[in-house]
Amino acid sequence: MPVTDSAARARFLAAARFNEHGLLPVIAQAATGGEVLMMAWMNAEALEETLATGRVVYFSRSRNALWRKGETSGQVQHWTDLRLDCDGDTLLALVEQQGVACHTGRRSCFFQALRDGTVTAIIAPEVDLEVLYGR
Known about the structure:
This protein has 3 helices and 8 strands. With 135 residues, the protein is an alpha+beta fold.
């Protein structure tokens, strides 16, 4: 749901409190069902593009570049609601996820849990990585 009013986008950006590196942590949650899918980062440019287009755009710290979710995998996110926390320093993105959210082929990045004293994968991949990324 793109925000076409540039003044409204500017107000939302002004309310966001980016950290000393110019980044804002973002929790992506399924708009239906409420499952937490992933955590990533946005800079001001990523948040502006996300607001303007309706497609979720993150900032990749490893690549030092914008990361348009799904640009290589096709696993795109479109937001239905964006919510800043009480301090404005964390964003909750309610998203419609196309396919899986995790680069491991799982629906959620939060698939490891402590079970019987061992860190265990509790969610199996839904998509083969060769199919997902062609590798």
